Amino acid sequence: MLERKVTDVFCCVKETDDRTGEVTFTVKQTKARGRDVPAWKFRVLPVGSYGRPEQIISKSVDDEIPIEDIEAWLKADKDNFEQPLTLETVKDIFRQRGHIKASDLLQRTVERARNKRLIIPQDKTEYERGQKHPRYYINL
User: Fold this and answer.
1) In CATH, which of 1.10.3230, 1.10.1760, 3.30.70, 1.10.10 is domain 67-138?
2) What is the pTM of this model?
3) Please, which residues bridge with residue 43 across strands?
4) Structure confidence at residue 60 (pLDDT)
5) In the 8-state DSSP scheme, what is residue 122?
6) Which of 25, 36, 90, 116 could pair with 104 as two cysteines, CB 3.0-4.6 Å apart?
């Protein structure tokens, strides 16, 4: 009931490094009504520093999906749809196979598939009458 009233839902995961004993926290957005917020990581400084939080800016904390998974999802659905596929159909494959709900992660997944040439946009000469946006071929 409370989730229906809030604009954003965040999940905080505590991680402890076994070698150094350092404790870090990763915060990820799980649901959003408005725009998505990228994940971030922070640690709490020792008591001598008044225990204030400090954001860790190293590599991206976003839960990027391995390209092998994206390839497997597209390969599994290659014969289930008539090609070329609309952008919404490609997104639906990622939603169903990868259980991706966040719109920014979904968009990044489509971009990664396009950059790795797993999906190829059709040429403008292949557009149907009235078509404004490219459709995509699965290149597997």
Assistant:
1) 1.10.10
2) 0.56
3) 24, 54
4) 54
5) P
6) 36
